[in-house]
TrEMBL record, chain A:
It comes from the Bacteria. Keywords: Membrane, Transmembrane, Transmembrane helix. Its main location: membrane. Residues 127-420 form the NADH:quinone oxidoreductase/Mrp antiporter transmembrane domain. It is found in: Endomembrane system; Membrane. The chain crosses the membrane at residues 6-24, 31-51, 71-97, 109-127, 133-151, 163-184, 204-225, 232-251, 271-292, 299-317, 323-347, 368-386, 406-428, 454-472. It is a multi-pass membrane protein. This is NADH-quinone oxidoreductase subunit M. NDH-1 shuttles electrons from NAD(P)H, via FMN and iron-sulfur (Fe-S) centers, to quinones in the respiratory chain. The immediate electron acceptor for the enzyme in this species is believed to be plastoquinone. Couples the redox reaction to proton translocation (for every two electrons transferred, four hydrogen ions are translocated across the cytoplasmic membrane), and thus conserves the redox energy in a proton gradient. It holds the Pfam family Proton_antipo_M. Belongs to the complex I subunit 4 family.
From TrEMBL, chain B:
It comes from Anabaena catenula FACHB-362. Keywords: Membrane, NAD, NADP, Plastoquinone, Quinone, Thylakoid, Translocase, Transmembrane, Transmembrane helix, Transport. Residues 12-99 form the NAD(P)H-quinone oxidoreductase subunit 2 N-terminal domain. The chain crosses the membrane at residues 15-35, 42-61, 81-102, 109-126, 132-152, 164-186, 206-227, 248-274, 280-299, 306-324, 330-354, 375-404, 410-430. It holds the Pfam family Proton_antipo_M. This is NAD(P)H-quinone oxidoreductase subunit 2. Its main location: membrane. The lineage of its organism: Bacteria, Bacillati, Cyanobacteriota, Cyanophyceae, Nostocales. It catalyses: a plastoquinone + NADH + (n+1) H(+)(in) = a plastoquinol + NAD(+) + n H(+)(out); a plastoquinone + NADPH + (n+1) H(+)(in) = a plastoquinol + NADP(+) + n H(+)(out). Belongs to the complex I subunit 2 family. It is a multi-pass membrane protein.
């Protein structure tokens, strides 16, 4: 059942890429991949409906022996932590393909790379074996490099190689940690349930957890390791930015939750205070740097860094509530970032610039881009955490859950959330409001097909904002059971320290 | 001594595969003498058929009950079979590549094939040789043929220079090796057979004496030269650049595999008493090779030179398995060498194909190739990415197994270094992929703009295509469907008495050392 999510995209990627001759015409490539992504999305929704939310463990498990010598088995499963990420992945893949330019150069390579990434990400979320996870994790590397380098902006070569090196280093760290985890536990298999870190000495646990935090922190990204992100996000085309920010960044946070918190509960509670502070720094840093930006895409990129800080804070607090908040934040950040990038892409395509100094008056009903601006306002509000939209729900739950454990970092994050509102107001003020410049404003019409993804995303954002149960119900049991493993006495000690 | 007894001690059946190679080799030479140049149309296929028959013969020798032949000077155990298979297979692919290349250079194909098969023969005998003289002779057979092959395109000054360099360095390293070997003969009280030497040294109570250490170092100098480990690597970039490309394809796989086969046999059987010492030396070699190979490869502009440094680095990775010295370590080496065969030969086939069509092998000239030659682009990209260890290609699984085995044996720093240098290696491998795939049509190099119409029907192109597609498929799926190869590698180690005996010997050795300490 779950294999379908991985193999349909990958096999169709191979077919689109390698089909000899012109049996798949380049112009059809988009249609074919859209169909494939649609099928996968429907299948994913079907799995979501069949998902039993009262069961905390892995569901729909699949098992195939693969390589006994390496302890690598084809072992899949889905639980509350990953189900939303899977849906997000297939949903955003569909959106990304839909919003791709119809006249993309070299369409067959483009769509096959997008589908390959999608299948690989699904595999990473589904894997129940460390090595299998790593395999799918590294599988993103080359397709994304090509997507940045071929269809990117002006400085794409630089951005691409930077992305490649950062991600490869992150992969090396993760692999080293995985090898260490498995060998120190004396297990002969990389399966999740075969690896229990309980009997590793505390020092080793901290070392391994450090590797996990660094490895996934590069991907998330956390502050000193984030420098690849603005370059990569800015240089890629809008649909790829949706995938990169919406889906790939979630691999980092998912890895942190699954392998950091899930596999090292004791060591996690030791380093949690510093992680909380790190999260707060991330949030403030992202917001402050975003205020200084003159390019909308760059602003959105830094906003993404800031939002990752909330997730880290919530994960560090690791109360049942804050973890639910973290998962909700991951999902809502995914859809909000997707709509923002999509709208920015449309603005860039129609107006021809992304500079805050050159844009103005897009709200103008007749000659501007009124609907796009309205949606931009809505999504900026969602990102800043205005009630009634999904961003608020996620942030509020995370802060509510974290406050009891780490009050000061939480307050700092609330401040950062305020700063988010500041730069989004700057962004909206400079783009949507004001007057159109008469000599420049002859923008092409935005056709309905281009607005569709944004409308779908916007209605989803509003729906989840007013009906948040649908956002949080999937992960509740799983996260509660994850928290139950964390030793409690240390937690009280830590909260005392934090209070002082 | 009656005749039957001698026959059973000779046990000549163990070298049946080599016998087939010899017959084919002579056949190639004689046919060439009789028919002259006209035979060059099919003489390559004759050689390939012979080598494939030899591989089939190897298959039937798997798990032979009595592998020791020629009164102990040749050991046809499973370990040797797998290495002989690798060498023969690399010769097969090399011939597929060279049919067109050698024809185009205006030299005789049959002579080339004959020398190549002699080198193969030397390598195959080296894999199973278990006696000092036998080792030396087969090593020399391999080396001398390699010198000849390197300078085969004798009108090209670069080829001549490469041959001279290779000859001078090779001959001196063999001399050093010979000195080490003669020391072993003396230390052990006049034994030449490997296990007898080990016993002789143990009995003579010279364990860890200065003489043994010097012998070890001299032997390692010879081995390090063959596998192009870092301080003994200086010939590699120059030879790779100057020699005919099919020759370096063979040197990078066949000759290297022979070197590793020799390393395993010699070090585990003869030097269990100084196991810590040779592990230490090889750790140093591995560190140097990984760092130097990968870092210097970043700065190369010629494809062949880049692959030369890459092969130095890859040798460093393989040495991790040798240093680990466990069953998993040895079998990870074997597995890596197997997949290295596919990826490197696939890469070199593409390089040959490109230089046959355009006459150059500068990396910058590859830019924009995807439009003109998609198959070549695909083959070279896949093989280079596999060399970089990108999943789900064969090289990824090879590296994972090496690192896994290294980690199990406690070589944490070495594995971490391997991981870091792999990241570095991805950078220079992907540079080529970027040239070919990412560049826009207007950024195409002049060479690619004038790229000839692709035609596989020219003489000698069909075998190149077959070789390319076969190695490409193998590189792609050998990782995903790696179980048979894993089983093969594991079994060959588990069924090899010398590697199993080594553990006992090393425990005995440590017992002796502790006794002496007391």
């Amino acid at each position: 059942m779950l294999s379908v999510l991985i193999w349909i995209p990958i096999i169709s990627a191979a077919i689109i890429g390698f089909w000899p001759g012109n049996a798949i015409e380049p112009s059809r490539a988009r249609l074919v991949s859209l169909t494939v992504a649609g099928i996968v999305l429907l299948w994913n929704v079907f799995i979501l409906l069949k998902f039993d939310i009262s069961y905390p463990g892995m569901q729909f498990q699949e098992y195939l022996p693969w390589n006994e010598t390496l302890g690598l088995n084809y072992q899949l499963g889905v639980d509350g932590l990953s189900i939303l990420m899977l849906v997000l992945n297939s949903f955003l893949t569909w959106i990304a393909i839909y919003s791709s330019n119809k006249n993309t150069e070299r369409p067959r390579l483009y769509y096959s790379m997008v589908l390959l990434v999608s299948g690989g990400v699904a595999g990473a979320f589904l894997a129940e074996n460390l090595l299998l996870f790593f395999l799918f994790y590294e599988l993103e590397l080359i397709p994304f490099y090509l997507l940045i380098c071929i269809w990117g902006g002006e400085k794409r070569a630089y951005a691409g190689i930077k992305f490649l090196i950062y991600t490869a280093v992150s992969g090396a760290l993760i692999l080293a940690t995985f090898l260490g985890m498995v060998w120190l536990t004396g297990s002969h298999s990389f399966a999740f349930d075969a690896v229990s870190t309980q009997n590793i000495s505390a020092g080793m646990q901290l070392l391994l957890l450090g590797g996990i935090v660094l490895g996934f922190g590069i991907k998330m990204p956390l502050v000193p390791f984030h420098t690849w992100l603005p370059d990569a996000y800015v240089e890629v085309s809008a649909p790829i930015a949706i995938l990169l920010g919406g889906v790939l960044a979630k691999l980092g946070t998912y890895g942190l939750l699954r392998f950091g918190l899930g596999m090292f509960p004791q060591a996690w509670s030791v380093i949690a205070p510093s992680l909380a502070i790190w999260g707060a720094i991330n949030a403030i840093y992202g917001a402050v740097i975003a205020i200084a930006q003159k390019d909308i895409k760059r602003m959105v990129a830094y906003s993404s860094i800031g939002h990752m800080g909330y997730i880290l804070l919530a994960a560090a607090a690791s109360t049942p509530l804050s973890l639910v908040g973290a998962v909700a934040q991951m999902f809502s950040h995914g859809i909000i970032l997707a709509i923002l990038f999509h709208l920015v892409g449309i603005v860039e395509a129609k107006v021809g610039t992304r500079e805050l100094d050159k844009l103005s008056g897009l709200m103008s009903p007749i000659r501007g881009l009124p609907l796009i601006s309205a949606l931009l306002v809505l999504s900026g509000m969602a990102s800043a955490g205005i009630p009634g939209l999904t961003g608020f729900v996620a942030e509020f739950i995370s802060f509510q859950g974290s406050f009891s454990t780490f009050p000061i970092p939480t307050l700092l994050c609330v401040v950062a959330s305020g700063l988010t509102a500041v730069y989004f107001v700057i962004l909206l003020n400079r783009t949507c409001f004001g007057r159109l410049q008469n000599n420049l404003a002859y923008y092409p019409k935005v056709v309905w097909a281009e607005k569709m993804p944004a409308l779908i995303l916007a209605s989803l954002i509003i729906f989840l904002g007013v009906q948040p149960t649908w956002l949080v119900r999937w992960s509740e049991t799983t996260t509660t059971s994850m928290v139950a493993v964390i030793p409690t006495p240390e937690k009280t000690v830590i909260s005392e320290i934090a209070l002082k | 001594m009656d005749f039957a007894n001698i026959a059973s001690q000779l046990n000549a059946g163990t070298i049946l595969p080599e016998g087939i190679v010899i017959i084919t080799l002579l056949g190639v030479l004689i046919v060439d003498l009789i028919l002259g140049r006209t035979s060059s149309r099919w003489i390559g296929y004759l050689a390939i058929a012979g080598l494939l028959t030899a591989i089939v013969a190897l298959y039937f020798q798997w798990d032979a009950t009595n592998p020791i032949g020629f009164t102990g000077s040749f050991n046809g155990d499973d370990l040797s079979i797998i290495f002989r298979g690798i060498i023969a297979l690399s010769a097969v692919v090399t011939i597929l590549m060279s049919i067109r290349y050698i024809e185009q250079s205006g030299t005789a194909l049959a002579e080339f094939i004959a020398i190549l098969m002699t080198a193969t023969l030397g390598g195959m005998f080296l894999s199973g040789a278990s006696e000092l003289v036998m080792i030396f002779i087969s090593l020399e057979t391999l080396s001398i043929s390699s010198y000849l092959l390197t300078g085969y395109t004798k009108r090209d000054p670069r080829s001549n220079e490469a041959a001279l360099k290779y000859l001078l360095i090779g001959a001196s390293s063999t001399a050093v090796f010979l000195y080490g070997v003669s020391l072993l003969y003396g230390l052990s009280g006049g034994q030449t057979e490997l296990s007898a030497i080990a016993n002789g040294i143990a009995a003579a109570n010279v364990s860890q004496s200065l003489g043994l250490v010097i012998a070890l170092v001299f032997v390692i100098a010879g081995i390090g030269f063959k596998i192009s480990a870092a301080p003994f690597h200086q010939w590699t970039p120059d030879v790779y650049e100057g020699a005919p490309t099919p020759v370096i394809a063979f040197l990078s796989v066949g000759s290297k595999a022979a070197g590793f086969a020799l390393a395993i046999r010699l070090l585990t059987v003869v030097f269990p008493l100084v196991a810590d010492e040779w592990r230490f030396v090889f750790t140093a070699l591995a560190v140097l090779s990984m760092v130097l190979g990968n870092v210097v490869a970043l700065a190369q502009t010629s494809m062949k030179r880049m692959l030369a440094y890459s092969s130095i680095a890859q040798a460093g990775f393989v040495m991790i398995g040798l240093i680990a010295g466990t069953d998993a370590g040895y079998s990870s080496m074997i597995f890596y060498l197997l997949v290295y065969l596919f990826m490197n030969l696939c890469g070199f086939t593409c390089v040959i194909l490109f230089s046959l069509r355009t006459g150059t092998d500068q990396i910058a000239e590859y830019s924009g190739l995807y439009q003109k030659d998609p198959l070549l682009t695909l083959g070279l990209s896949i093989s280079l990415l596999s060399l970089g260890g990108i999943p789900p290609l064969a090289g990824f699984f090879g590296k994972i197994y090496l690192f896994w085995a290294g980690w199990q044996a406690g070589l944490y720093w070495l594995v971490l270094l391997g991981l870091v240098t792999s990241v570095v290696s991805i950078y220079y491998y992907i540079r080529v992929v970027k040239m070919m795939v990412v560049k826009e049509p207007q950024e195409m190099s002049d060479v690619v703009k004038n790229y000839p119409q692709i035609s596989w029907n020219l003489p000698g192109f069909r075998p190149l295509q077959v070789g390319l597609i076969a190695t490409l498929i193998a590189t792609t799926v050998a990782g995903i469907l790696s179980n048979p190869l894993f089983t093969l590698a594991n079994n060959s180690v588990a069924n090899t008495p010398i590697l199993q005996a080594e553990k006992i010997a090393s425990t005995q050795a440590s017992a002796i050392i502790t006794e002496q300490a007391e």
